[in-house]
């Protein structure tokens, strides 16, 4: 990391979750605003939302060079004396665009003009995405927040200010809705979550662009915003104009809904925490607990049998106690119970949680692999979380084209469908590569029924790039696949053998060639997939 400042420094940021109240205003409806109104708006947001401590301190501004972050940096600089701040700018050079080097120079020039230290870190995001087998968007976001975390820690920053606007908020809520979410996802981004603050959430994108023009501030343009396949770009360019034409005030309505849901989620969070206290408490402490109205959840009686739960490597919820809770509380309880063990970003999707909840209600004996080391079981007595060291039994599931298939041993969904390539095979570029979780292969290479199963002892397989078959166990060793994953790893196979090891390689016989006439696309995901 390089820094345009006296010394190189680094930060600490915390992952985002939850919601925050937001006010609707003329900005939400796109009503005209006075040229300098954005300054008063940001000042009011900081004060009303309590985004900064009264004593002030170091604030890092995430600075990409775009109009939003440039406006935020300039505005925070103008407010630094009033709020007793020392402003630093942080720019991540992600290596994704040819103009990235020029972006750094623009950012450096603006910071020199403002007298603000600039901290630059260079990360090869495409290489990071390939190594971690995630999308470029996810790898870039993770790299950016990791950079902010390190820098905030080194500077002892009181806040990291991000330039998300009201337009970003609306887009985020719609994207969450399209991808599948619950009430929490419809709250959008919070004004503040730990050290992360968003002072521009009450301002619009149009305001930031106009402000930069009025202040003669140079900005950079991210060419990836023109990618027609990017969901945010399509929501911005296609969905929002359509919704606005049908309901001109829809943005205001959406923000009002988010504010209402924030209050709802805050109440539910309190209820879940009370239940969790009961789960991990002794019967004696439960008897002394204060639970408000007796007609409420009556949680202590339900969880009185929970003595000793959560000690050591196993956590347990009595099934009878769980079944007596309202379904809404059951869902939230499962998420919060698993969160400390899995982390917020690795929580199972809704479909898996519903499967677990349904099995618990019926008292079924089921097993759910949540991660390499954690397994959740249900039976007639309890929901139990195990630190798993055992190997799973053999499994095999038939594949139906166009129909999502859930693989409980892997905690993932598989979707295979035939895709059309009207422009020729050169269009088959969005399928990733052999090492991704989305691949394309020759449909005519498939022999018999497609199935998903785990590996078999002594099985052989010829990966792409090899001239002869090789033992599957040797391939696992060569590819450094951990032993704990090998028996749980879902393999796409036909009657001949393995076609694809997700995230690692495809079979040489299934590769796309100039002679390919039909193409199958396979996608593996932790979230449910639409056929």
Distinctive features:
seven-stranded mixed beta sheet; Phenylalanyl-tRNA Synthetase, Chain B, domain 3; 22 strands; alpha+beta; 3 domains; five-stranded antiparallel beta sheet; Uridine Diphospho-n-acetylenolpyruvylglucosamine Reductase, domain 3; 17 helices; 531 residues; Rossmann fold
Q: Quick one: CATH class of the largest domain?
A: Alpha Beta
The CATH superfamily of the largest domain turns out to be HUPs
Principal-axis shape equals globular
Span between termini: 44 Å
Can you tell me the residue ranges where pLDDT is under 50 for at least 5 consecutive residues?
4-33, 282-313, 426-430
Give the strand order of the largest sheet, numbering strands 1, 2, ... along the chain: 1-4-3-2-5-7-6
Total of domains: 3
CATH fold topology of the largest domain: Rossmann fold
Strand content: 15-25%
Label the CATH architecture of the largest domain.
Answer: 3-Layer(aba) Sandwich
Strand pairing plus helix content: what structural class?
alpha+beta
């Amino acid at each position: 990391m390089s820094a345009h400042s006296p010394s190189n420094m680094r930060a600490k940021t915390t992952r985002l979750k939850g919601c925050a109240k937001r006010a609707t205003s003329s900005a939400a409806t796109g009503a005209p605003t006075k040229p300098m109104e954005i300054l008063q708006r940001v000042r009011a947001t900081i004060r009303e939302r309590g985004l900064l401590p009264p004593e002030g301190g170091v604030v890092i501004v995430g600075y990409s060079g775009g109009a939003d972050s440039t406006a935020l940096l300039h505005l925070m600089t103008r407010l630094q004396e009033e709020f007793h701040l020392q402003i630093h700018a942080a720019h991540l050079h992600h290596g994704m665009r040819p103009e990235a080097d020029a972006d750094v120079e623009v950012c450096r020039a603006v910071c020199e003009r403002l007298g603000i230290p600039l901290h630059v870190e260079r990360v090869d995001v495409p290489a990071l995405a390939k190594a971690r087998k995630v999308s470029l968007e996810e790898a870039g976001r993770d790299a950016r927040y990791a950079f902010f975390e390190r820098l905030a820690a080194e500077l002892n920053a009181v806040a990291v200010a991000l330039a998300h606007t009201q337009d970003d908020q609306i887009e985020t809520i719609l994207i969450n809705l399209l991808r599948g979410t619950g009430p929490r996802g419809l709250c959008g981004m919070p004004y503040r979550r730990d050290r992360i603050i968003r002072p521009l959430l009450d301002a619009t994108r149009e305001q930031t662009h106009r402000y930069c023009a009025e202040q003669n501030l140079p900005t950079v343009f991210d060419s990836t915003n023109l990618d027609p396949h990017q969901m945010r770009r399509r929501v911005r360019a296609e969905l929002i104009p359509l919704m606005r034409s049908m309901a001109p005030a829809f943005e205001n309505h959406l923000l009002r809904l988010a504010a209402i849901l924030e209050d709802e989620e805050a109440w539910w969070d309190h209820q879940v925490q009370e239940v969790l206290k009961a789960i991990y408490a002794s019967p004696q402490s439960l008897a002394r607990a204060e639970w408000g109205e007796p007609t409420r959840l009556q949680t202590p009686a339900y969880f009185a049998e929970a003595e000793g739960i959560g000690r050591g490597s196993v956590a347990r919820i009595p099934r009878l106690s769980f079944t007596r809770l309202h379904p809404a509380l059951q869902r939230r309880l499962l998420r919060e119970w698993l969160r400390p063990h899995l982390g917020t970003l690795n929580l199972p999707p809704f479909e898996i949680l519903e499967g677990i909840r349904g099995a618990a209600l019926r008292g079924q004996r089921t097993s759910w692999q949540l991660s390499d080391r954690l397994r959740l079981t249900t039976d007639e007595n309890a929901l139990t979380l195990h630190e798993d060291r055992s190997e799973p039994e053999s499994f095999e599931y038939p594949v139906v084209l166009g129909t999502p298939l859930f693989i409980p041993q892997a905690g993932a969904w598989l979707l295979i469908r035939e895709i059309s390539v009207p422009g020729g095979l050169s269009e088959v570029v969005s399928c990733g590569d052999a090492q991704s979780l989305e691949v394309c292969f020759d449909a005519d290479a498939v022999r018999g029924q497609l199935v998903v199963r785990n590996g078999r002892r002594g099985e052989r397989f010829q990966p792409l790039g090899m001239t002869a078959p090789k033992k599957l166990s040797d391939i696992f060793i060569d590819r450094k696949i951990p032993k704990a994953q090998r028996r749980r790893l879902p393999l796409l196979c036909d009657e001949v053998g393995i076609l694809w090891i997700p995230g690692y390689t495809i079979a040489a016989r299934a590769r796309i060639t100039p002679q390919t006439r039909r193409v199958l696309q396979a996608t593996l995901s932790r979230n449910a997939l639409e056929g």
